[in-house]
Specification:
Order of helices and strands of chain B: HHHHHHHHHHHHHHHHH
Helix content of chain A: 25-40%
CATH architecture of one domain in chain A: Orthogonal Bundle
Strand content of chain A: 15-25%
Order of helices and strands of chain A: HHHHHHHHEEEEEEEEEH
Shape of chain B: globular
Oligomer: heterodimer
Strand content of chain B: under 5%
Number of strands of chain B: 0
Distance between the termini of chain A: 109 Å
Structural class of chain B: mainly alpha
Largest sheet of chain B: none
Shape of chain A: flat
Number of helices of chain B: 17
Largest interface: A-B, 33 and 32 residues
Distance between the termini of chain B: 13 Å
CATH superfamily of one domain in chain A: Cytochrome c-like domain
Largest sheet of chain A: 5 strands, antiparallel
Amino acid sequence: MKKLFYILLLMVITLLRVEAQNPGWIVPDDQKGKICLVKFTPDMVKQGEALYMKNCQSCHGIPTKKNFAAIQPSPGDLSEPKAGTQKDGELFYRITTGKVPMPEFRNILSEDERWSVISFLRSFHKGYVQPDPEKMAASMGKRIRLTMAYDTAKKKIMVKAVELTKNGPVSAKGAEIIVFVQRYFGNMQLADPKPTSESGYAGFDWPQDFPGDKTGKVILGARVNDPTGSMQEAIVRDTLTIGLPTNKPSLTDTRAMWSTREKAPVWMILTYVLAVIIVWYFIFYIILSVLDIRKIKQIKKT
Amino acid sequence: MDQIINDLSHHIRLNKGFFLWMGFLALAFLACLYAYIQQLRYGLGVAGIRDYISWGLYISNFVFFVASSLIGMLISAVLGLIGLAYVFLYARFQSPILWDVTVITTYFVISLLLLFLPMIPDMAVLYKRFANLPSWLKPVYKVLSLNWTDHPEQNRIIHRSIYILLILIIPAALSIHTVTSWLFALTVRPGWDSTIFGPYFVSGAFVAGSAAVIIAMFFFRKNYKLQDYLTDLHFNNMGKVLVLVAFVYLYFNINEYLVPGYKLKRADAVHLKELMSGHFALTFWLVQVGGLLIPIVLMLFRKMRKPLPLTLISIVVLIAAWFKRYLIVVPAMAHPFLPVQHVPDNFKVYSPTLIEIAITLLSFILVLIIITLISKFFPVIPVVETAKEKGLDPLKSNES
């Protein structure tokens, strides 16, 4: 009896511990209401599917197949009601911020791309009706358009923010701008975020020794970083020829151990060929001289 | 002199026992050949190997045979060639596979010459003086003995050739084991990513090779009644050799597991855990303790180096040597760096299929057939050398 009690106690403690370790993934209330500003279209779903396969499928598996990865906490199949009953804003927040072990996609997928992933997921959720963007538009933040240029004299990247109002574009003041440079993997933030000035400009010092590609091209991006939601997301990408031309030959351009057969290192070919020639020279020498044994007998006879 | 010739050559005949044994081998061979034909017809899918664990029994066998080939004979080389001939399609100078194929071919030819050259005088003597030489073997002996008359010039050629070959075979043997180890060590997989894999394989080959020699000695001695020529002294000495090489191998084993075991890098930790306390633990400890540690301790005692106990120990060591190759090949493949996901279950674990096991048996049967045939058609112990050691001149006594 005592034993049973201990076992039960142990089980309760274990359960409590598991609960304590898993406080859930809470989405702030102000984020729950966020919605997509356009109607989901079949094209969007298609784009979302491609993005999903590239970014999400390795853990979450193919929707409805329940072949998600066996890790803790479980990623789960996103076609299930657990995801299906969440609001668009909740899904959007979770994709955006991530929670270990799920990565954050803030800098990996653009806002549009995140929405197309959600549109793909929604295609599996029965009974889902998308909130009408038109009706909700009023409650959304200001619409901002960004442009970017390099100021040669000031050696600065100048980002201009323009608010699109009913009466036409107006310079947007106080929009917090982040500038980043595209790398092989993800983006690199260039400096601390800066608000735009009265005239809608934010300038970022451009390091003069920044490496570009062979011709000095650098792919830059800028976006509005507005956590309060008073401004909608705006992003601009541009290729500027302002980097230091950097010509690093590809690792497989020269002869090397790791290269293809045609690019084998000369010393290696020589070593191989020489070793084979030397060893086989002796082998053939021996075979020929052993065959001579026969002749010795004949010479002796004659 | 006739006594020596008869003693050392009386096994060269085709008796009932031989036909029974060969018949058994041939039947087993055919049964297993069927498995191989199945594999040729339906592809490697009939084996248990899949995308992730793509090296299973076959590569284990290959490594095992390369190791045992330190017997210095063609047996292993033939099998090595069978196992690898198909990769010679696209030769890349940087690839250890190209080097492996080259070295094995070279090693095969050198071994064949080393087997053949010392036998030339024997065949001449047996052709002339061995009355019981089967008549159908006579022309073979005549051709292969190359008109040997014990002429000084002939002796000079043979001795010089053997001398060169003995020098050549040392780098060839070292290369074959090192290059085989590089097939593994030139990757970053935990369990293979090791700088001591070369000497580790060489010393392992010495262990397997010595054990195989002891076993062969025992059976030739018993079946061909060679007790006077393969004495307890020979076994005692071979036992000492096996202890020595096993010690060296043990030393490399400790290095191979202790050093990554101390650092416990994440991937290494998974690999070592799987070996020492996980799925492969039973095999691992049987191989290390039963196949290496206990044999070493036993063979330190003179009594255990008598022919029968030494042979039993060698059989255990040789079986352990095979499982050791399996442990080197399979667990490392079961834990690649990239996660294994979205694949059928049989991709994740490896278990050999019946066909694979049959093909493995096929290779072992082939080894037995080759050894049996060679030992039935040719002397196992050099006749002329033995005679000369005893102060006899085999050819001259014939002429007088």
